[in-house]
Amino acid sequence: MSEKKHIFLIGFMGSGKTSIGKLLARQLNYNFLDTDRTIEAQENATIQEIFDTEGEAYFRELERKLLLNSISLENPTVFSTGGGMPIYNDNISLMLANGWVVFLDISLGKIYFRLKNDKKRPLLKSNHNLFDFIQFSLKERLPIYSMADLKVDAGARKTEILEEIVIGFGARLS
Q1: Cα(98)–Cα(142) distance, rounded to whole angstroms?
Q2: CA distance 10 to 7
Q3: How far apart are CA 62 and CA 136, in angstroms?
């Protein structure tokens, strides 16, 4: 098994993985990779367009391939993963074996508040009752998210979240 040098941020959509990931990478002098943005660049299409034209299964396979290709990156990297990435294709096991996994946990109410006007996310577009969808999806995904090495309250201030992650991993990140 390779030495764990990457950090994977996981959690439900709207939990702040990208914004926290960029700040964390800057603070630790790590590279940063947003898996959704990388897939969009590779496919020259938005996540919504990929879902519409190729379907969710195709997108999940793109996530798996990206993860397999990325874990061997030479430089330590903070990954902002899509909310479903750890759930499918046993990606969580691959992340745990090749990096430190941080679950950005956030309350149902805060997720709803952050996502209620979001029109860009494909899984939200097709769900008429957003609150019920979030509640059901969170309950379904929580056992996988909870496998993370560290769970952080993503409803806190960004500075507190960053501090908790850095302290939580301490010497393991150096």
Answers
A1: 21
A2: 10
A3: 25
Please tell me the total count of domains within the chain.
1
Task: Tell me, yes or no, whether 174 lies in a domain.
Answer: no
Query: Is 62 inside any structural domain?
Result: yes
The per-residue pLDDT for range 13-53, each reduced to its tens digit, is 889 999 999 999 999 999 999 999 999 999 999 988 998 89
Domain that holds residue 161: 6-167
Residue 158 parent element (H or E):
helix 158-169
Q: What is the CATH number of the domain that holds 149?
A: 3.40.50.300
Residue 139 Cα distances to 107, 135, 144, 153, angstroms: 12, 6, 10, 17
Cβ proximity of 20 and 102 under 8 Å:
no
Question: Quick check: is 173 in a domain?
Answer: no
